[in-house]
Design a protein that fits this description.
single chain, 92 residues, 4 strands, 20% strand
Length: 92
């Protein structure tokens, strides 16, 4: 098990803003690769009622993840968001 924990925003990163349509199959594959490699994958969103319906939509597109949280404030984890602030834009 890896010690890395990824928090990934839903809107603008996984889904197109305000929809349940994925940005691309490549994004889904890369997130699933993180999960399959043993990393913790947590999603966050500011969408109201971010519980069950968001999880159902994410599972419908085949995304693997550990859970969905309200958008957190954390500086000890990897942030992946549609608002670039610094770091690398390349996911390997």
């Amino acid at each position: 098990m890896s010690d890395k924990c990824y928090f990934i925003d839903v809107d603008g990163t996984i889904f197109k803003h305000g929809t349940e349509e994925p940005l691309s199959d490549e994004i889904i594959a890369k997130v699933n690769a993180l999960y399959d490699a043993g990393h913790q994958v947590w999603l966050f969103t500011c969408r109201p009622s971010s519980g069950v319906w968001v999880q159902i939509a994410l599972k419908r597109v085949g995304l693997k993840f550990h859970g969905v949280l309200p958008k957190p404030l954390a500086d000890e984890y990897f942030y992946i968001d549609d608002k670039f602030v610094g770091g690398s834009t390349k996911v390997e």
